[in-house]
Design goal:
With 300 residues, the chain is mainly α. It has helices at residues 4-16, 18-45, 67-84, 89-113, 125-157, 166-202, 220-238, 245-264, 269-298. The N and C termini lie far apart (49 Å).
Length: 300
């Protein structure tokens, strides 16, 4: 007779094992290449196919074709986030930051295809957005470098402390159970949101494309809303396993960081970029202070 723990272990092995990850990675790579070729074909055939709008921001230039394979790469990053959830909270959070930075990089390709090169650069909305995004991508890349450096430093300090207590073992299995639930949930959400976007984009309705506020937000608006629920759940459950002040503050800070990223999808322009950068700066600062806190507690 199967116990709940053994069922979770088997499902985790099926959906989130290293073998499964490599298989999904290969599949995503193939889909990315095929989608890039198909998107290029749509761009060159847009004027001849009645269901395509040649004035669409995604069909005006071959540069925009990079947008589609990047979308598949982002889907793989979402899988990696779920993959790392049971292993490390900080690595799980770093994957959130990677995803939002890649969303901005993906947005840059669409912005590049629609640039209006003129002396009125700072008065054109699209050109301004490109400026914000290119600066934000560099800043986020640098912030992620420091986040990973701090996380690596934390792992080095924790060497030799990896023997799992019974309570921590239960917490890890709970995170595995959450990760297992997230796999079909996020897959269903992705199919629904991208399907809805495709229907509204290609269906013969006036303003179909405009019914979705921003193509860059498709799926990821709802995705970060789900992450907020997961982060809050992990925060509340963590109280059963630790009452250390700095751990509680770190986990709470990560929840706030995720909420700020989610709020950024509701605004555009400079405010959107500033919110994203501030969310990552906040998470990085929380992790840095947490690490210093632990150093002080461990020093004799």
């Amino acid at each position: 007779m199967y116990s709940l723990k053994s069922v979770v272990t088997e499902l985790h092995q099926l959906l989130l094992s290293e073998t499964t990850r490599r298989a999904i990675e290969r599949t995503i790579l193939i889909l990315s290449i095929l989608s890039f070729i198909i998107h290029l074909g749509f761009i060159y055939l847009a004027e001849y196919l009645p269901f395509l709008d040649p004035d669409s921001p995604l069909l005006v230039s071959p540069i925009a074709a990079v947008y589609t394979p990047f979308s598949f790469i982002l889907v793989y990053e979402v899988y990696l986030l779920v993959f790392y959830l049971p292993r490390s909270i900080t690595t799980y959070i770093s994957k959130q930051y990677e995803i939002i930075s890649l969303i901005i990089i993906r947005r840059l390709f669409k912005d590049l295809a629609n640039l209006k090169l003129s002396t009125d650069w700072f008065s054109i909305k699209g050109d301004l957005q490109f400026t914000y995004d290119i600066l934000a991508s560099v800043i986020l890349f640098y912030l992620l470098f420091w986040f990973y450096r701090l996380n690596k430093h934390r792992k080095a300090i924790n060497q030799g402390e990896q023997s799992l207590s019974l309570a921590l073992d239960r917490f890890v299995h709970l995170k595995k159970a959450i990760a297992i639930v997230l796999v079909p949930l996020l897959l269903g959400l992705a199919l629904y949101t991208f399907g809805k976007w495709g229907y509204l984009e290609f269906a013969q309705y006036d303003g179909g494309f405009g019914k979705l506020k921003n193509v860059n937000n498709v799926f990821f608006d709802e995705f970060f809303a789900v992450l907020i629920i997961v982060d809050v759940l992990l925060l509340l459950v963590s109280f059963f396993y630790t009452d250390k002040y700095h751990k509680v503050i770190r986990n709470s800070g990560f929840v706030i960081s995720t909420i700020l990223i989610r709020i950024s999808f509701s605004v555009e322009g400079l405010v959107n970029t500033v919110l994203i950068i501030f969310a990552v700066v906040f998470g990085l600062t929380i992790l840095a202070i947490h690490n210093q806190f632990e150093k002080r507690l461990e020093s004799p």
